[in-house]
Design goal:
By secondary structure, the chain is an alpha/beta fold. It has 4 domains: 3-176, no CATH class; 191-283, Helix Hairpins, CATH 1.10.287.70; 299-421, Rossmann fold, CATH 3.40.50.720; 447-526, Regulator of K+ conductance, C-terminal domain (Alpha-Beta Plaits). Helices cover 61% and strands 10% of the residues. It contains 22 helices and 10 strands. It has helices at residues 3-26, 28-42, 49-69, 77-101, 105-118, 125-140, 143-152, 168-171, 173-176, 178-189, 191-216, 227-238, 251-295, 309-320, 332-340, 353-359, 375-388, 401-409, 418-431, 433-443, 467-473, 515-526; strands at residues 301-305, 324-329, 345-347, 365-370, 393-397, 414-416, 450-455, 478-485, 491-495, 508-513. The strands form 2 sheets. A 6-stranded parallel β-sheet has the order 3-2-1-4-5-6, with helices on both faces. A 4-stranded antiparallel β-sheet has the order 7-10-8-9. Strand 8 (478-485) and strand 9 form a beta hairpin. Helix 4 runs antiparallel to helix 7 (143-152). The longest helix is centred in the middle third of the chain and has 45 residues, at 251-295. The chain is extended, with a radius of gyration of 34 Å.
Length: 527
């Protein structure tokens, strides 16, 4: 083949690779499939990852158990096939999938192509292949990928010595057991202190080993025949294990033994304090990670920003409604108080977009309540949430009427001014005490009566039904009115509606009565 034809063939191959890369970049189905496997393998907040992790832990433990059984017994044929084919296939598939989702090769190809077009240079096939291989090699040389690869090797039973590598499969559990990975993260964060401690320990072991060998390695102690025995004794003694298989017999050796024991106690205390302090520093972060994982499996989450006096009251009421709650509080003491009260809480600044992105503002959050004591902070949180997802219902607490008007103009769904409500209730209490008691009963849940809403949905028993029929269905309940939504912004409350009013999809009935009667009515409507 001539040089010209070889170059033409390479250009044709490069052209096919580039076209395929653009095809993958434009394919929604490809991106959907890849995102699914990425979430399954890497995304801790993905609802199905927990089940995948449990499945992989089961595979790992059974493969190790097979190794233990095979030590003294002959494995049944089905068990060998399970280990040889099923376990191996799962590990290989996982390894390849992790390599696939590690990066997007089509983006690398497109970048190289566009760069070559920008500088009017031909794109060489060797450069494309080199960048692809280099990218995947970066993944293959990571510690986790090396462990994954070693875990596959024991499947080749022809080389029996490789089967001991099955123990490396246990290290794969670090991917799936979050508590283990958190412990390793803590050790990594204290790497400098632990390396210093290890170096100090090695120094004392070396000195003590030399000393005991000088004092007792000359025949005075028959258990110490060489330097290895001396170092072994020093390591066992400094760790305060003390097997007793080697004991000093000379006065000098016993003095060395006492010194090394006291040194070992100090080193162990030092190591314990390092680990405990690191755990204490990361305990809040671990708890918040757990909260994020729990929220990642929920839908229609209500986020309450601020755990002050109003925040506590609102959270208590939402708890009675069995809503999925998460509290964001930047005061660490209040966040810990919310956690102690049994609520999911994170200590963070709700004005930061990253907090809501972690929670899942685009898919999992339905309502955000801005209830801090600072009007400007509430306004900033509300506008920030609306910029991230305009579809989320946002309620903001505000004391300044000017700021409240600006929030309404900015598109905030509801603005609550506590002072106005307090003033209105005060007027009722002074001028119309009976009406005040009625209002108080409506808004204060006493366990006997409750106010609730029942939504009319397409296909349920309320759609297309007149109000007079609804009153017959709602046993022991009082119908206060109907909220009719014309669009996301415009709604109307129809108090004591006409009996001929026909309910339609999206309407909400506001009823008052005993919780058991409300629950019965909801079940009847849904059926």
């Amino acid at each position: 083949m001539s040089e010209k034809s070889a170059k033409s063939s390479q250009n044709a191959i490069v052209g096919m690779i580039v076209r395929f890369a653009y095809f993958l970049a434009a394919s929604e189905r490809y991106q959907h499939v890849k995102n699914f496997f990425y979430d399954l393998l890497e995304n801790d907040r993905y609802r199905y990852k927990r089940w995948f992790d449990l499945f992989m832990i089961f595979i790992i433990l059974t493969s190790v158990l097979i190794l233990v059984i095979d030590v003294k017994k002959t494995l049944p044929a089905w068990l060998e096939d399970y280990d040889m084919y099923f376990v191996t296939t799962v590990f290989i598939a996982e390894y390849l999938l992790r390599m696939w989702v590690y990066s997007d090769l089509h983006k690398i190809v497109i970048h190289l192509y566009e760069e070559s077009q920008y500088f009017y240079q031909p794109l060489r096939l060797s450069k494309v292949l080199w960048e692809i291989v280099k990218d995947k090699w970066n993944y293959m040389t990571t510690p986790a990928a090396i462990i994954d690869l070693i875990a596959i090797l024991p499947s080749y039973r022809q080389i029996r010595i490789l089967r001991i590598l099955v123990l490396f499969r246990v290290f794969k559990m670090l991917r799936y057991a979050r508590s283990l990975s958190s412990f390793l993260y803590i050790l990594k964060s204290k790497k400098f202190e632990l390396i210093t401690l290890l170096t100090l320990t090695a120094f004392f072991v070396f000195i003590a080993g030399i000393m005991i060998y000088v004092f007792e390695g000359n025949g005075a102690n028959e258990d110490i025949k060489n330097l290895f025995d001396a170092f072994y004794w020093a390591l066992v003694t400094i760790s305060t294990v003390g097997y007793g298989d080697i004991s000093p017999v000379t006065p000098e050796g016993r003095v060395v033994s006492m010194l090394i024991i006291m040194t070992g106690v100090g080193l162990i205390s030092f190591m314990t304090s390092i680990i405990v302090s690191s755990f204490s520093e990361r305990l809040t972060e671990l708890r918040e990670d757990r909260v994020m994982q729990e929220v990642g499996k929920k839908r229609d989450v209500v986020v309450v920003c601020g755990y002050g006096i109003m925040g506590r009251k609102v959270v208590k009421g939402l708890e009675n409604e069995q809503s999925e709650l998460i509290i964001i509080e930047k005061d660490e003491a209040k966040a810990q108080e919310a956690h102690s009260d049994g609520f999911r809480s994170i200590c963070a600044d709700a004005t930061q977009s990253a907090v809501f992105e972690k929670i899942g503002i685009d898919a999992r959050v339905s309502h955000v309540l801005c209830l801090t004591s600072d009007d400007e902070e509430n306004a900033f949180i509300a506008i920030n949430v609306k910029s991230l997802n305009p579809g989320v219902n946002v309620v903001a607490r505000c004391s300044d009427s000017e700021i409240a008007d600006k929030l309404r103009y900015a598109g905030i769904d509801d603005v609550v001014i506590p002072e106005e409500i307090t003033a209105m209730m005060g007027v009722l209490h002074a001028g119309e005490p009976v009406t005040f008691e009625v209002m108080r009963c409506l808004f204060v849940y006493d366990g006997e009566n409750a106010i609730d809403e029942v939504t009319v949905k397409h296909g349920n028993a309320l759609e297309g039904v007149q109000i007079d029929s609804v009153k017959k269905m709602a046993l022991h309940l009082t119908l206060l009115g109907v909220v009719r939504f014309y669009d996301r912004k415009k709604r109307e409350f129809l108090f004591n509606p006409d009996d001929r009013l026909v309910l339609q999809d999206g309407d909400s009935l506001v009823v008052i009565g005993k919780p058991s009667a409300i629950a019965y009515f909801k079940r009847k409507v849904q059926s």
